[in-house]
Amino acid sequence: MKKMFLPLLLLSIGISVSSCTSSETEGNLNKEIVLGTLEQFDNAIITRDAGVLSSIASQELTYGHSSGNIQDREEFIDDVVNGTFEFLTISNEDQSVHISGNVAIVRHILSADALNNGIAAQVHIGVVMVFKLDENGHIVLLARQAYKL
Question: By CB distance 3.0 to 4.6 Å, which of 21, 52, 144, 146 could disulfide with 66?
Answer without folding.
Answer: 146
